[in-house]
Amino acid sequence: xxxxxxxxxxxxxxxxxxxxxxxAELVARAERLAQDLGLQFTTLRRxxxxxxxxxxxxxxxxxxxxRLSVPGKxxxxxxxxxxxDFLTEHGLVHRIASRxxxxxxxxxxxxxxxxxxxxxxxxGSVDETISAEIERSLDRTLAQAGFKPASRIVEIEGECGAxxxxxxxx
Amino acid sequence: xxxxxxxxxxxxxxxxxxxxxxxAELVARAERLAQDLGLQFTTLRRxxxxxxxxxxxxxxxxxxxxRLSVPGKxxxxxxxxxxxDFLTEHGLVHRIASRxxxxxxxxxxxxxxxxxxxxxxxxGSVDETISAEIERSLDRTLAQAGFKPASRIVEIEGECGAxxxxxxxx
DNA sequence: GCCCTGCCTGTTACAGTGTAACGACCGACC
DNA sequence: GGTCGGTCGTTACACTGTAACAGGCAGGGC
Lengths: 170, 170
Ligand SMILES: [Zn+2]
Ligand SMILES: [Zn+2]
Ligand SMILES: [Zn+2]
Ligand SMILES: [Zn+2]
Fold this sequence. Notes:
2 copies of one chain form a homodimer. Chain A is built from 6 helices and 5 strands; from the N terminus they run ααααββββαβα. The first copy, chain A, has a 3-stranded mixed β-sheet. In chain A, strands 1-2 form a two-stranded antiparallel ribbon. By secondary structure, chain A is α+β, with helices and mostly antiparallel strands. Chain A has helices spanning 23-37, 43-54, 61-68, 77-89, 132-144, 161-165, and strands spanning 93-96, 101-104, 116-120, 126-129, 148-159. Chain A has a single domain, classed as Orthogonal Bundle (Arc Repressor Mutant, subunit A), CATH 1.10.10. Helix content of chain A is 39%, strand content 17%. Chains A and B meet through strand 3, helix 5 and strand 5 of A and strand 3, helix 5 and strand 5 of B. Strand 5 of chain A pairs antiparallel with strand 5 (148-159) of chain B, so a sheet runs across the interface. One zinc ion binds at residues 120, 122-123, 125, 160, 162-163 of chain A. Chain B binds a DNA duplex through helix 4.
C-alpha cells in the first residue's frame, strides 16, 4: 500500500481517479453555488472540500482536521464539523453513515436525486452512482407504505471490480 | 409523550405494535437458531434481545446497558456490544447506521434479502420492509458496475403515515 | 467614522460511540 | 484432573459529535 490503496489498473468508471483531477471542478461548483445563493465559501470550507476531494477514500472529521493543521496552527475538529455541515447541506460532500466519514460528491445531482454508494472492503474506495431505476422502486415502495421520505441513505459494502480482478493474482 | 412515542390510532402495518407482542416470537426464533447451529443463546443475549424488542424505537447500546442494569449489578456497554454483535450477525436485530442504534428484526428474512428501514423523524419509529423490486434494481445496478455486494444498507428518513395524519390536528 | 448585527471561527468542555486487552469463569471433551 | 474454546467482567482508551461562549470580521444604517 503506497498511498491511497493499491488501485492502479482498472478501467471501470471509478470514484476518485486519484485526486486533484476533480478538485478544481468541485471548488468551481462551490464558488458558483455560493455566488448564486449569497453564501460564504470561506477559506476553511474551501480547504476542507479540497482535502476531502483529494483523498481517494472516505475521511473522518478528525483526519481532515489533522490534514488541515500545520505546526503552530491547529484546526480543531469542531471547526471541520461546521465546514462539513455547510458542504453536505449543499451537496458538495456526502457523509457515509456506515463509516462516519465523508467523500466528495461526484455528480452534482439535485437534492431530489439520491445517490448509491459502493464501498469496497478491500481498497476502501467509494463509488457514487445514480440510478433512476432504484429511485423509482424506492418511491413506489415508500408510497405504498404511506411514508413521506425526506432523505435516503443507500450504502452497499462489498468488493469493487478492480479488487475482484486482483483476487489471488497479487 | 407517555411511553414510547404517541402512536396510537393508525392502522398501517407498523414496526413494533408497542412491545412484548413479538418479543416471545423473536426469542423463540433465537432459541431455535442457536439449537440448530450449536450456538449459545445466553441470558445476556436473551435479555438484550428482549430489551430491544420491547422498545418501540431504536435503542443505543448504552441505553440498553442502562436498562439491563439493576442497582448493585451494572451491565457494561462493552458486554452489550458483544451481545449485539451476536444478535446482528444472526439477523435477530438490525443496526440503524444513521442513528447508531438497534432495532429488532421483524421479518426473519435470510441473509440474502436485505431490508429497507423507514425511520420517522416525528415519532422515531422504525419500520422494516422487504421489497423484491428494490432488491432487483439494486442487483442490476451493482452488476452493471461490476461490484460484488456483501451487505446493503438502505435507510429512509421521513415521516410515517401515522404522523402525517396527525399533522395539524393535534 | 461609528455602532449594530449576523455570520464564521477558535476554544473549552463534555456526552456518546466503539474497540483492544487481559483475566476469570464455565462447560465440553479427552 | 487438565485442556480448550467461548462468554463475560473490567479497565482503559480512541474516535465521533455537539453545546456554549467568546473573539473577529464584514456590511449596513446612522
Ligand atoms: Zn453526490
Ligand atoms: Zn476495491
Ligand atoms: Zn430483519
Ligand atoms: Zn411517525
